[in-house]
UniProtKB/TrEMBL annotation:
This is Predicted membrane protein. Belongs to the UPF0719 family. GO terms for cellular component: plasma membrane. It comes from Vibrio vulnificus (strain YJ016). It is a multi-pass membrane protein. The keyword Protein biosynthesis does not apply. Keywords: Cell membrane, Membrane, Transmembrane, Transmembrane helix. It is found in: Cell membrane. The chain crosses the membrane at residues 12-36, 57-76, 88-111, 123-142. It comes from the Bacteria.
């Protein structure tokens, strides 16, 4: 009977440690997503939230959704491969920078008038922006390994 109690306590202890790590990483992930939203929408020349809420701008909704998905994919890779919470935080910042740089490349190099096109609710522009963001997120996640 004592052996059973010892095994049960060992399992419960492991679950508690795992749950604590989950809470830490998940909480930091949510904080990163909120920070990304705050930073990203200030770096774009238009107000995505206003375009979406007040004007039902589908292109802006697609572009912003892609940016969020791309960033979440990247930080999920960071969480999976991080060796510590500090390591995860560093990679979270790297992922954020990569997403912002990707937007700048699309805006200034690939599709120079993409911001105006998104403001005019041209859906293909929103799709291109979202696709680049998601693609960069996937590449980020794949590259964040040891």
């Amino acid at each position: 009977m004592g052996s059973y109690k010892g095994k049960l306590m060992s399992v419960l202890s492991g679950l508690l440690a795992g749950f604590t790590n989950f809470l830490l990483y998940f909480s930091l992930s949510i904080a990163f997503v909120l920070a990304f939203k705050f930073i990203y929408v200030r770096l774009t020349p238009y107000d995505e939230w206003k375009l979406i809420k007040e004007h039902s701008n589908t292109a802006a909704a697609i572009a912003l959704s892609g940016a969020f998905l791309g960033y979440c994919i990247a930080i999920s890779g960071a969480a999976k491969n991080a060796i510590s919470l500090v390591d995860f935080a560093v990679w979270g910042v790297v992922a954020m920078c990569a997403q912002v740089i990707a937007f700048a490349i699309v805006r200034f190099v690939l599709v120079p008038r993409i911001t105006e096109r998104i403001e005019r609710d041209e859906i293909p522009a929103g799709i291109i922006s979202a696709t680049v963001s998601i693609s960069v997120g996937v590449l980020n996640a794949a590259c964040m390994s040891y």
